[in-house]
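P.,

For your records, the input lines for the assembly:
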Amino acid sequence: MKLTIKHLFFILFSACIISCSSDDSVDKDEEKPTITIQYAGGFPQACAELQKGQTYTFKAKVMDNKALASYSLDLHHNFDHHTHDDQGETCDLNPIKQAVNPFIFMKNYTIEGHQTAYEINISLTIPNDIDSGDYHCSYSVTDATGWQSRTSVDIKIIE
Amino acid sequence: MFHKTLCAWLSFSLCTLSFAQKTFTIEGTVKNAQTQSPIAGVSIIGEGIFAVSADDGSFTLKNVGEGVYTLQATHLGYTPKYFDLEVNGQPENLLVTLSESNTLLQEVQLLGKTKEKLAKEQPLVTVEASKAFMEANRENSLMQTLSKIPGVSTINIGSGQSKPVIRGLGFNRVAVVQNGIKHEAQQWGSDHGLEIDQYGMGAIQIIKGSASFMYGSDAIAGVVNIKPAAAPEEHSFSGEVNLLGESNNNLLGISTGIQARKEKWFYRARLTFRDYGDYKVPTNRINYENYIFELHENHLRNTAGMEANASFSVGYISDHIKSETFFSNVYNKNGFFANAHGLEVRTSSIDYDRSDRDIDLPYHQVNHFKITNNTVITGNKHTLYFETGFQNNQREEHSEPVPHGYMPKPAHSKEREFHKNTFSLNIRDAFQMQKGHSMHAGVNLEFQQNTIDGWGFLIPAFNRFTAGVFAYNQLEINPNLHLQAGLRYDFGFLDTKAHVDWYPSTRTNEDGSTSYIYLQRAQNKQLDFGNMSASVGLSYLQNHTTYKINIGKSFRMPLANELASDGVNYHMYRYERGNIDLDPETSYQLDIDIDHTAELFSVGISPFVNVFDNFIYLNPTPNYFETLQIYEYTQNKVFRMGAEVRASTTLFDNLQVDASMEYVYSRQTSGAKKGFTLPFAPPLSTLLSASYQFKKLLFFKKPQFIVDYRITAAQDEIVPPEEKTAGYQVLNMALMSHFNLFKYDAQCRLKLNNAFDTKYFNHTSFYRLIDVPEAGRNISLSLTIPF
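Structure tokens returned:
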């Protein structure tokens, strides 16, 4: 009895050790995609002023080690100064005010064909009937694994 | 041999008798002061006198001449007792009572001898943390205190809150049981702590492994079983005051408890109050993604908090009935780090740095009210256990109202409110079938009602009813070989309530027109679940070595958020989507435990292997909903294994050295994240600790110096959106001592945490995701004065 139990433990224990040492060779993607507007064509740049009624092309570069999947663009007001951008620059914000008819733009896009580099290119017309003032523009991108990167920039919409 | 010795001894003692002039035989009994049960194996030593108590606690002192003797009664696990014995011709019947020790040498130990033996015979892998352990290691929250036990870790948020993690699994995969009733809060959330007062509790039993067959759903990874303190002694009144001060977060805490007992009736009461400021981290700036947050005087702004708890219980003990009713209320209010609300970066006009003690937005407040009754009726062969409970958990999360997406700016700060009522009833019969074979059978019933409020939506309101019937036996095959087998069936019914947004969202229709609709986030759904769980295990005792093997199947019912959430989780800045088709999670686990305890040293190893058929996992998908990444609840196969290794030895009589190591390996073996680990995977970690017991130092009695050195490896096993975490080493030191304070035997502890003010990250901390390091150096002083 004694021996059998001892042996049983020994076998199970060695089984654990062996299975510990044999690591599975699944090729895991542990890298986030990258996103930037800090290049010559990137738009909008920090503290940019956008005019109502004008059409702009929003551009950002995204890259991934494996496969890019989706991206999104979000424009929302920052009249209450609730957030700030990550561009390392501080823009002069207008005084805090109440939103009446703020501009909201939210749209998601997919990147087909497992690309590893891509330039976001969104043509957007700023409507005329919206509140002018401080806005926040944020881009985000995912890769096929589900990693995400974001970047955001403070802008102003003016008359 | 024995007979010869006995003969020799008898003849020798007879000789002695014939020569002695006036000697007496004194009989007596040793009893446990708290339980009044006899204690076997107690050594009673005096000058020329020696006896050891028998199984029924009785002892006989022979050949005692006239005079006054000072005797000492000692037993492992009890405070040694000195008493005077006056022998003047009248043989008297002595009654010696021993109190369970508060100054055990080993910091983690299985209480008492009979309990220790029982634990050895029990095939489940359990660790018991005594009251002494709790006092010696008390940290800011209950789970942080327990995380010194190998295999136990925590998910922390801030300095005052943490939730239990056993071998890498936490949230609803660990059942927390207090006074026999499952503690029900909002334990699914990573920023929710455990609302339990860590003062005034008895021992805590931790089951590492599959325990659904005893505790039902949720006990997949293990159980934290918080037992009530032992009933006070007859005709006694006692109390204690605990004071605590900490330098890092300027914490001031006071807890005071009293207990009294006449003959059969007893009561206890306790009040606890703690208030703390923002905690300090060893850095003055935090880099999160591309953001930089400057910290004012190293304070992690707005992490102050307070806690106020009150509890009262009244009990009755007689020969056949023991019943105690507990009333408790725990109130917590904590701020959250202000620069990032969860993962979203925020700026605010609130002047957070004006004070490090105020609690501004965002914060949460929780009130947990509980009434439980434990009744045990002891019959001839049957013992009936009744546990009844009512819990009311009210949690509010407040943050600055900010518009998001199509949601306009809300009118108030109440982002979320959860209000949960839980009614529980457990009935269990333990009966002796024959000698060495006992059977336990019972039912557990629980009804939960969860309602929601606030402008943010994450989980729907729901009602949930669960019922379980179980039976398990404990069979002594021979005195060294014990078998435990259990079977259980659970039925659960979940009724989720519909939820519709309070604001309209803009939708572009196929024909290009725009409509404004109030989105429905959750639907009325009725779901039912059934599950069988089982466990079988053997324990084998061989001299100083105990072998245990246990295999069990456990399960967990899906939660309302896993089934039906459909909304933005602002804390995590993501869109979470439930899946109504989820099955109950089932897990199979093999546990082994080998322990060798000899006189001078002790070693042990507890490996485990665990397979999940359908682990419920919140999968980050590559897709977006209104520009937020969608996370979806899915079910995958998961393989896990790991082990805890421990060793301890006593050197030069006074130096105790302990080492323990814990490791968990997890892999998702199917699904979208095949090959990845699970979230919050604890890294390989080693704890080395040494404690030196001084003889006497000035007016300090039994002073003890403890050094803990934790070495944690890097965690490179991650899953989106986690970051790899570097390894670290942290040194903690403590000085503990008893001393006389106005005739009371007071105990004090001076503790230094993170001695070198090391900047390190804890992979299982909620704030890890926003790159906030762990708390810096902390000096704490605690004082316990019994009266």
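Two observations worth noting. Residues 5-21, 103-113 of chain B have pLDDT under 50 and may be disordered. DSSP finds six helices and 47 strands in chain B.

Regards
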